[in-house]
Amino acid sequence: MRALGAQVPAAAAGRTADPLARAIDYPLLVSLGWDPVTKTLAPDRQHPLLGYSICRVAGCESEAWDRSGLCGGCRSRFEAGGEASIEAFAALGARPKNRSRDRRCLVCQIPGFERPVGTNDLCLSCDGLRRRRRQDVAAYVSGDGGYPPAQPRPGLGLCTVAACGRLAARRETGLCGAHDGAWRVAGRPDLAAFRAGASPCLADRSGRVVLAGLGDDVIAEVLYGVQASVAEGRRVLTTNLRGVVGHLRRCGAANVADAVATAAPRTPVRSFLAFTADRAGLVRSDPGTEQEADVWDLRLWGAAGRLSFAGGAASPRYPGAEATPGHHPAVAEGGGQDVGGRGPQYHDGGAGAGRHRRRRAAF
Length: 363
Description:
By secondary structure, the chain is mainly alpha-helical. It is built from 14 helices and nine strands.
């Protein structure tokens, strides 16, 4: 089980040598909705780049990505109900939500002795004992001629799924009721792997992206991807960002770059991963180290494109970069600048040796 209460993240002092750690603007991210304690991003729904619409059904606060303006649950109810119009359906209001996850057992509800409701307004343990005694709920709670009033049981802490903040419901697994059910339906897979890779409960996702459970380095890269997207005016949908985090959980990659290849092509998830890997790689580079590579990223010199000295071979850093033979040391000795300071130059080592030309590659 996990201890109940706020889990303060470890200090990142050991990672400050990473240029990416120094480039992350945490005050900005906090203003965008980042909570470093719960490791959750909950952006303002009115934000021009991170915001989202809510369902038009009265009383429903879920995200709405459907063109009709309905959330997924309300859309399914509308299609099944046969209402004349979406307007009439929306005016009916939302279906009462199941808030059992927020409720405590009638007996186990004092600090240190908190357990979630399972059945009959009791936790699973209390209700199991009640049934074995053949008592009704009131007799179990207050006592009767055969048994004294029930006593609260020690809490089980938080659900052991890294991305979950609900109270644990089962001692055997350390999982909340929803995750315990999901684990059983999945065929009871390896519990450690399930705890690390499971997503938050469906009802806990709207308006939030939970990064808890990912490695600290991966979290830092995702946050930098969000920061860079906002800086460049790129729209980031919370639903897509949840897809990114879900993919990172499943593949277990140690960094964002390793997760790009396993993401489905031409999807928002892969697009964000590729963008983030590119921007994280850029911030970790500098002109000095770049001059030792076979392919230079000209953005480090304030230009665009890439300059290749790979001699026709594919570059491991930029697999798609066109490679044309050139004398790499000649440009490096010049500090990556021509006499006019206009950026790196390509040096032709063939018949035209001595003649310099600039070559700019497109992305």
